[in-house]
Amino acid sequence: MEKTSTTVGRILMVEDDPKDVELTLTALEDYNLANEVVVTRDGEQALDYLYCRGEYKMRSRENPAVMLLDLKLPKVDGMEVLKQIKADPNLSMIPVVVLTSSREEKDMVASYKLGVNAYVVKPVDFHEFVNAIKELGIFWAVINEPPPGSIRK
Amino acid sequence: MTAVALGFALLGYRYQFHDVEVPLFLLAIALTAWYAGPRPTVLALALSIVLFDYFFTEPRFTLYVRSSDVPYLVIFICFASLVAWFSAVRRRVETALVRARDDLQAEVAERTQQASLLDLTHDTIFVRLMNDMITYWNRGAQQLYGWTAQEAIGKHSQQLFQTIYPVPVEDVRAELLRTGRWEGELRKRKADGTEVVVASRWSLRRDEQDRPLAILETNNDITGRKRREQEIQDLNRELEKRSTELEATNKELEAFAYSVSHDLRAPLRHVSGYSELLQKKSASVLDDKGNRYIAMIVDSAKHMGNLIDDLLSFSRIGRAEARKAPVSLTQLAKEALNEVRPETEGRNVVWKIGDLPDLYGDRSMMRLVLVNLLSNAVKFTRTRAQAEIEIGCASATGEECVVFVRDNGVGFDMKYVNKLFGVFQRLHQASEFEGTGIGLATVQRVIHRHGGRVWAEGAVDKGATFYFSTPALKG
Q1: Does domain B322-471 correspond to CATH entry 3.30.70.260?
Q2: pLDDT tens digit string along B143-173?
Q3: Which of A102, B47, B79, B243 has the fewest CB within 10 Å, making it most exposed?
Q4: Which residue on chain B is closest to A124 by alpha carbon?
Q5: What is the DSSP string of B274-312?
Q6: pTM reported for the whole predicted model
Q7: Domains of chain A
Q8: B44 touches A at CB < 8 Å
Q9: CATH fold label, B121-221
């Protein structure tokens, strides 16, 4: 499964839990979107990817079509990543979907205040989870027209 | 008076006493001028001249005036004028004296009245000279401190009171001399030795030369107020401490709830997810038992997810601040009904919604109450061919309104009514009716936070009615 994650893809996933990564990729497989996913494991890595620095220095300079962002992350947390992206004119247009376990209202309010494009609570029920991920993937990576400068198929 | 003088003069003349007539007439004029005023004096003068001329100057018994008589006339007139002038001065002085006396009397009366007025007040008032000696002591002072005026007047106030000043007494004096007044709280000793705290106001009195003369001091006993202030302060400190502790506990609880929300759900999702994946991949190689086990795992994970969600919303009600505003229950009932409607799919449910009042409360919390109650009603009428669920207003007084949700479901035994609203308390087996046992506890918590009550009536197989009351919307 790990092999499916690439260094270039339309979907940037920021998720530290390998099981969640696997389950998400499984859900996206059905629509052949799994190989479009770039996985970063913490906030710092995600920012490195977006700014094409560190291990991502060599990647093509296009933005992902959507970013799936967990909030609870090692090093730089999701809220901080969101804040930095939305404050940077080059990155602020990237659609960001917060995908989290937290149903806490304050997280939701804070995310929307920072300009998040969608806020999805990961359902405990696997069917619901798979459906949610599939719909997210389809909508943002296929149906939605991404902003200029995004990676296209 | 002139007639009397004439009588005496004639009498003297008769007894050969010559030369008494002039002094006698002068005396008469003088007496008239002194006592009777200017007009009688002129009359007396004229009469004296005429009578003197008539009786005592040659030729006698005529009004003929010889030139030798003129000096007598001049003397009479000069003398009369002099005496009249003296008399006028005397009168003026006398009048002034009388007026001064009257003024003095009036002032004495006024002062006496003022002094007795000062005695009437309950405020403590006393006056002391600059050397601290007490010169005035009203009844309020006697009542507060216990010394009579006789005992206090003449004493040194510092010796009497043993006053404790909040600032050096020199500063107090300096401010008094500079501004003419001073205000502050003083501790003083009473006659019985106990201490009293007074709000003290000093006013400086100066003489005509602007020299400090005396200090008028009024005192109000604030011992009780001080004690209460101290008590309130102590209580506030205690409250502050408790509130800080509570805040810390609340923060801890919030952190706990947050980690429950986030960290507990993740592994649960994985259990559920991997079980499903296992089922998908290996359904063909597993026997029925194996498939059932996986189904059980999935089911349990789902149930635990629901439990966590319900517990979190229950704990959130305790933590979150209630944002109260006027709420239309009719509107809320409609929303709640829409939310539970999917659960009634394929069933025959008759809804009866009566007139509902507006009330004052937190909208989302009250919505949770109605959703929970309606959802319960739907759940426990599942075994009925036709479910009947009614929501209405049982009574609405000016003080509170009582809302009920009634169903014709399986009901409950009144024996266990006190268990209904407890957390994790369930009156039905999970195999009969699923549930987490948190719904009614949440209802109770919300209603209690709104200052209302919840209660229920029911009988086994005869349906149940849940009531809640909330303070009525005023105005």
Answers
A1: no
A2: 899 999 888 999 998 888 889 998 898 899 8
A3: B243
A4: B269
A5: HHHHHHHHHTTTS-HHHHHHHHHHHHHHHHHHHHHHHHH
A6: 0.51
A7: 2-142 (3.40.50.2300)
A8: no
A9: Beta-Lactamase (3.30.450)
